[in-house]
Design goal:
By secondary structure, the protein is mainly β. The chain is about 5% helix and about 35% strand.
Length: about 400
């Protein structure tokens, strides 16, 4: 890929120098990153290694005028870093991940991943569509998870950076062949990442197919707004009256249960640690929160899904999406076996994941909103992670 045709040479040089200063000055843990905002808004690209099959991978850096910086890999559409300001104006990385591609090529827990074809779990790796049963890989116990053994987070996407009206952007494209990971239909997918000038990381997914299939794309960054430590002090608000209870394998039972009177009621801002240890069967199944909330919203309308604030740093993250559900996960399977950026060993509940999406196991749940995509239709999903600070 010769990206210099689409980027001004001088802009590349200036942006590369700025990116190098950022990446070498605070390449890993954000505690060493205290850079102030400047007025540049640039895009740069640099090599990020090769896959096990020898395919070159590029790392794209988007930087807005506020000084926020997002880095995105052509491998897996991974958001490898996202630096935003705290209340003092110091910038820090609020995502977990690795300093190099090799870490992502291992068996990682979807750090920063573009998830597809189907985000979340499908029971027993089976679903029936138009009378035909399809069999998927079971890569999460007895269930299929996040697109299978080689989902969209493990392929190299064709990348095209560009300057949009909203801010620096990156377009990723991938064609998933009919039968890939067991899914029917050739699926043509486009994902556009924009680091907006008003400090949002905006993700826009579209897809078309030549045969009836199921689609559920989402994003899987692990966020820690403090930049280190556990997330029990993060305060969360989710405007949802209901959630989808699960069985012991984390597959929804089909019920849309009220959150009222349970640890799942985040309609009023509540610290994650306030009730995560409650003696409730659902919390035991997930080893904490790993559930889908049913948002109070109009289907397909871009609305607020969650608001997360971190009192120490003052950072606030709002999650907006067109999707009907939000999977909220509290890093319950991080266990100290992964060493990530800057040598930080990721421990139990060191991060949260906020995944706007359709409900888990929707292909097998006729009462859930449909995830079926047919020829002639276009799948759309917009996700925005908006960052600000509180006094």
């Amino acid at each position: 890929m010769n990206m210099q045709k689409s980027l001004n040479t001088k802009s590349i040089a200036l942006a590369a120098a700025a990116a190098a200063a950022l990446l070498t000055g605070c390449a890993g843990h954000n505690s060493c990153c205290n850079m102030k905002a400047d007025t540049s808004a640039n895009i740069s690209v640099q090599p990020f290694g090769t896959t096990k099959d020898g395919v070159p991978v590029q790392l794209y850096t988007l930087r807005n005028k506020a000084g926020s910086v997002a880095t995105i890999s052509s491998y897996g559409g991974l958001v490898t870093s996202l630096k935003v300001a705290d209340r003092t104006g110091a910038f820090g990385d609020v995502t977990l991940g690795y300093d190099n591609l090799d870490g992502y090529l291992k068996d990682t827990p979807y750090f920063g991943a573009l998830v597809g074809r189907f985000g979340n779990r499908i029971a027993r790796g089976h679903f029936t569509l138009d009378g035909q049963t399809y069999t998927l890989a079971t890569n999460n116990g007895v269930n299929a998870l996040h697109g299978g053994l080689k989902g969209f987070d493990k392929v190299v996407w064709t990348a095209k950076p560009f300057e949009s009206k909203a801010g620096p952007a990156l377009e990723l494209n991938y064609v998933s062949p009919d039968g890939e990971e067991g899914y029917p239909g050739t699926l043509t997918v486009k994902a556009v990442y924009t680091l907006t000038e008003d400090n949002a990381l905006k993700l826009e997914y579209t897809a078309t197919t030549d045969k009836a299939t199921v689609v559920n794309l989402t994003h899987h960054s692990y966020f820690n707004l403090a930049g280190k430590g556990d997330v029990l002090g993060h305060v969360v608000m989710i405007p949802a009256d209901r959630y989808t209870p699960v069985d012991s394998t984390l597959i929804p039972t089909g019920e849309l249960a009220p959150v009222d009177g349970t640890a799942f009621d985040f309609r009023t801002p509540t610290a994650i640690g306030a009730r995560i240890g409650n003696d409730e069967t659902q919390l035991k199944y997930g080893n904490g929160y790993d559930h889908n909330w049913v948002l109070n919203k109009t289907m397909g309308k871009l609305t607020l899904m969650a608001r997360v604030s971190e009192p120490t740093s003052g950072r606030v993250m709002e999650v907006w999406s067109t999707e009907p559900g939000l999977q909220f996960y509290t890093g319950n399977f991080l266990d100290g076996t992964i060493t990530g950026k800057g040598g930080w060993t990721y421990q139990f509940r060191n991060a949260i994941v906020m995944e706007p999406q359709h409900f888990p196991d929707s292909p097998n749940q006729p009462n859930f909103p449909s995830v079926v995509l047919r020829p002639g239709q276009t799948y759309h999903n917009t996700i925005e992670y908006k960052f600000s600070v509180q006094p």
